Amino acid sequence: MVMTSLLASGAHADTFAYVGNADSNDISVFRIEPASGKAEAVQTVAFPGVDKPGSSTPLALSPDHAVLFAGVRAQPYTVLSFAIDAKSGRLTYRGSGPLADSMANIATDRTGKFLFSASYGGNKVALNPIGADGIVQAPTDVIPTGLNAHAFLPSPDNHFVFATNLGSDQILSFRFDAAAGTLTPNDPAAIKVAEKNGPRHLMFHPNGKFVYLVNELSANLLVFSYDAAQGTWQQIQQASALPPGPDDKPFDGKPWAADIHLTPDGRFLYASERTSSTIAAFKVDGESGKITPLGSVPTEKQPRGFAIDPSGHVLAALGELSNAMSVYRIDQASGALKLLQSYPVGKKPNWVEFASFP
């Protein structure tokens, strides 16, 4: 594994990466300099009172980047709250609250007052209020879904919430009242995709007009136009996150796509594929929403999670089987990824979040 020296003592950096490590039940904290991509380890934070490892460690940031939430997928199912120090990036444990099940994904609403969560094994989604102290309270709504709910994420305007159902090839659609903290089925209540796709994660384009969906079982990327007034989706394109096989032959492995992210300006999109341990890159047309493949790059072994820093200059990818984080520079003209360095993290890393401060 390639190691690196720490940042020069006088260097200024205000961007931090938080890595959730499932088997070691902790979070690795790094300071990252977006201009150079250099990183230094800041802190490793253990999960207080958590002994058994869960299958993954989903993370979520509050909208103001003041609190980091970490889901625990070992019983009793809880979500831990950590205060973030804006100057050092260091975490301080605040407390924990109950989750309705083992949750594969957690996310806050746009106000930071509610936590959405999705249970893959429990086939349900839930809504928890978040206290003024940043600690998650007991769930106020638990909703059965189709098979394998994997993500439960709000629309840009916070008026809708969408739940991917990997095993049922659908995305459930809910209207969300943030003032009352209530969810009601939208009309239509579900967005169907072709069978054996396996909807997993989704991203909205920054302009709010398009949704991008990565499908675990097919590694297809589906592009939808989005009607913000009605919360409805219409598919307009299908692409693939699979790399070519040897000698440019078709990929012959079993697709196992994982994560998807857009650069903050919406010009480039990336998706991770675990069987091949690659990240696929695409150019995005902001007018039509459609994407054009730019090729794939090798990355850490079994890249379940990755993220892009708020400046759009750095991509960090995690290897569940390599226990490491690779940092890439994103070429601002072409979207190409250039590997800068690989860093050791905890055991079975699967989630990374970036936070930046003025």
How would you characterize the overall build of this protein?
It is a single chain. This protein has about 350 residues and is mostly beta strands. Helix content is about 0%, strand content about 50%.
Any chance you could write out the topology, listing elements then pairs?
Layout: E1 15-21, E2 26-32, E3 39-46, E4 59-61, E5 67-72, E6 78-84, E7 91-98, E8 105-108, E9 114-119, E10 124-129, E11 141-144, E12 149-154, E13 160-165, E14 170-177, E15 182-192, E16 199-204, E17 210-215, E18 220-227, E19 232-240, E20 257-262, E21 268-273, E22 278-284, E23 291-298, E24 306-308, E25 314-319, E26 324-330, E27 337-344, E28 349-356
Antiparallel strand pairs: 1-2, 1-28, 2-3, 4-5, 5-6, 6-7, 8-9, 9-10, 10-11, 12-13, 13-14, 14-15, 16-17, 17-18, 18-19, 20-21, 21-22, 22-23, 24-25, 25-26, 26-27
Low-confidence stretches: 1-13
Number of helices: 0
Question: What separation lies between the terminal Cα atoms?
Answer: 33 Å
Main sheet properties: 4 strands, antiparallel
Helix share, percent = under 10%
Q: Going across the major beta sheet, what is the strand order?
A: 3-2-1-28
Question: What tags apply to this protein structure?
Answer:
358 residues, mainly beta, four-stranded antiparallel β-sheet, 28 strands, disordered N terminus
